[in-house]
Amino acid sequence: MIPQANNRSGETRAHSLTALTEHVAKANGVRREDMRPGDMVVLYTSNSVYRARQLPDGRFAVTGGWFDKHYSAEFVTSITGCTWGGKCINRQFVGSCGMRVEFGNRVITLVLQRVVRIPGSMLN
Question: Which of 26, 54, 73, 88 has the most CB atoms around its CB within 10 Å?
């Protein structure tokens, strides 16, 4: 989670650039560079599970959560990156605990609780 330290004026650093930079430096998760075509990332939030399989063109075939409510099959979109819920986005991550995933169609998940990458070679 992002530190909530107070500065001298009493304001929290929850969304300050310094706090976000410090969080990114320590963040772990699945980075875009870790993914290969056919790999799947499973994204767990407090009330949904999303499954995103990387396609050869870099986009993802996504199911679960919001997508299951609106589509009867996989929905193909990009993963823009991870965000803390505001306008600051980290494009390096496909999924990182404590952050939200923003998909190319502007759907944003709840805060991720767990992120799992499954290599395509392990999938049937």
Answer: 54
